[in-house]
């Protein structure tokens, strides 16, 4: 991850991580890419019905293929790349399923393969699914990044508010004024929005 000084100096016109990797294919950019996208690829494998071990195996296969194919990728937008990434992941997952008939039956019971198949399901539906997963992933990643900037107490209050716990109850449980609950929540919310924006500028 970059340090806070670099984050503060981030310029919107700077090449995104993906574009830098396509053009330069340097080790530093690749390490950043793996940090950000490895977890998302793994998430896709789980959505496609794989267990942890098989998911990790597919992640490594996808990353190896990406290292070879990224220089050939024509950059247009982050959304298009995520579709490209998903199709590659889907194909590797399906190849794994075909190796075991029993595994194939288990997967068919676990998920609707047709709905996730890029060739059978309408492109707008697949894109919608991918974008939904991406936004959720980006929000979780941003939250993980900002948590270290606050005390455990502040984060606990923020999480309780987001779970729908009444402010009055949090105030009583934490033995703090209701106004403090609002202040804590607003502080984390502001940082979270800033981090989501930074990630979007960097990755999309």
Explain the overall architecture.
- This protein is mainly α and 204 residues long.
- The chain has 2 domains: 4-138, Rna Polymerase Sigma Factor, Chain: A; 149-204.
- The protein has helices spanning 4-8, 17-24, 27-47, 52-69, 78-98, 101-110, 113-116, 123-147, 152-162, 167-174, 178-203.
- α3 crosses α8.
- The protein is elongated and about 55 Å long.
CATH architecture of the largest domain: Orthogonal Bundle
How many structural domains does the protein architecture include?
Answer: 2
Query: Which structural class should the secondary elements be placed in?
Result: mainly alpha
| Tally of strands | 0
Helical segment tally?
A: 11
How much β-strand is present in the residues? Answer: under 5%
N-to-C order of helices and strands = HHHHHHHHHHH
- Rg computed from alpha carbons, rounded to a whole number of angstroms: 20 Å
Mean pLDDT: 82
- Main beta sheet: strand number and arrangement? none
Shape: elongated
Low-confidence stretches: 1-14
* First-residue to last-residue Cα separation: 17 Å
- CATH top level of the largest domain is Mainly Alpha
CATH third-tier fold name of the largest domain: Rna Polymerase Sigma Factor, Chain: A
| Helical residue percent band | over 70%
CATH level-four homologous superfamily name of the largest domain: RNA polymerase sigma factor, region 2, helix turn helix motif
């Amino acid at each position: 991850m970059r340090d806070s000084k670099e984050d503060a100096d981030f310029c919107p016109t700077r090449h995104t991580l993906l574009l830098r990797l396509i053009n330069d294919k340097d080790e530093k950019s690749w390490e950043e890419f793996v940090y950000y996208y490895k977890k998302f690829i793994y998430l896709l494998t789980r959505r496609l019905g794989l267990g942890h071990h098989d998911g990790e195996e597919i992640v490594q296969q996808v990353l190896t293929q990406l290292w070879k194919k990224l220089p050939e990728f024509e950059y247009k937008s982050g959304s298009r790349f995520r579709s490209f990434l998903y199709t590659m992941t889907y194909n590797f997952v399906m190849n794994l399923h075909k190796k075991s008939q029993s595994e194939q039956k288990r997967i068919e019971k676990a998920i609707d393969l047709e709905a996730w198949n890029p060739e059978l399901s309408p492109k707008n539906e697949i894109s919608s699914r991918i974008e939904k997963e991406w936004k959720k992933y980006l929000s979780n990643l941003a939250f993980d990044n900002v948590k270290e900037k606050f005390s455990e107490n502040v984060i606990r209050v923020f999480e309780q508010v987001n779970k729908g716990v009444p402010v009055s109850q949090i105030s009583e449980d934490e033995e703090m004024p209701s106004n403090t609950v609002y202040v804590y929540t607003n502080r984390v919310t502001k940082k979270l929005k800033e981090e989501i924006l930074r990630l979007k500028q960097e990755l999309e």
